[in-house]
Amino acid sequence: MNTEVEEKQFLRFGPGWIGAVVFAWLVTTLVALALVVYALGPMLQSSDQRKALTEIRGEIGVALGASQSLFGAAPPAKPVEFGKPVAVMEIPALKVQQVVIEGASSGETASGPGHVPGTAGLGQPGNAVIAARNAGFGGPFGSLGALEKGDEIVVATTQGKSVYRVTDKATRPLDEGADYGKTENDRLTLVTSASWWPLASAEATVVTAALEGRPFRPSPQNGRADAQDGRTGDGDAWAGLVLAFGGFVVAAAGATFLYRRWRPVSTYVITGPVLLTLAALAALALWRLFPAWA
Description:
Helices cover 42% and strands 19% of the residues. It is an alpha+beta fold.
C-alpha cells in the first residue's frame, strides 16, 4: 500500500513535474526581465532624470550667480564624479530633453545618456561624446538615426549654452579611436546601439555635430576605462545578480513547497510579492551585464 502511494507521489512530483516547475519559473524570470526593463525601467529612468534635472539646475543657477559677481565663476578644480549630472541636452527634431550623466557604464546609462569619460567636456574644445540606450530604460537614443544634417542639438552646462549642428550620421561598427578620439574641430558625437536587441554590440548608430561659435574653457575630465565605451556591461552586477537570483530560487522552492501542503490562494498572497520583488532585482542586475547602450 505504501509503495503505491510513493509511486503516485513520485509520478505527481517526479522529474516531469519538477521540469515543468523549473520551466515555469524561467518563463516568469524572462517576463519579469522584459517588464522591468521596458515597463518599470522607463519609470525608474524618469525618476532619476527628475532628480538629476533638479540638481543640475541648481548648479547652473549657482554658476550663473557667480559669473555675475565681481570675481566671476571659479573654474572647476577636479572632474565631475561618476553618476553626477553634467549637462542638459535638447534635440528638438527628436523631441528629446535629457540630463547627461557623467560616465557610460551600464549602471549610469540606466539613468540617462552618459558622457564618455576621457572625451572633451560638453561645449568645450575637442570631441565630446555621449552614449545612450537604444531601447532599455526609456531608450532616449532610440530614434537617433532619424536625425538629419543641419538638425540642432543644444547643450546647457554650468558654463553656459552650446549649439551643435549635425554634420554626419552612420550605422557601422564603432571605431573607438576615431569616434572617441581627439579631433581637429570642436564637435559632439552621439552613440547608441544600431539594434534594439539587448546583446547587440557589433554595430552602432553614430551622429556627429559641429559646435557653432567658440567653445568654453576646458575643465578637468575623467580618464576612460575599457568598460566606459557603451559596448560592455557592468561586471560589478554579478554579485547583485547572484544574490537576487539565489533568493528568487529559494523563495520559488519555498512557494512550491507551500503550494503542495497549503491552500493555493494563501500561498500566492504570501509569496507573490516576495517573488516579484526578487525577480525585479534579478532582472535589473542581469540587464546591467548587457551593453550599456542596449
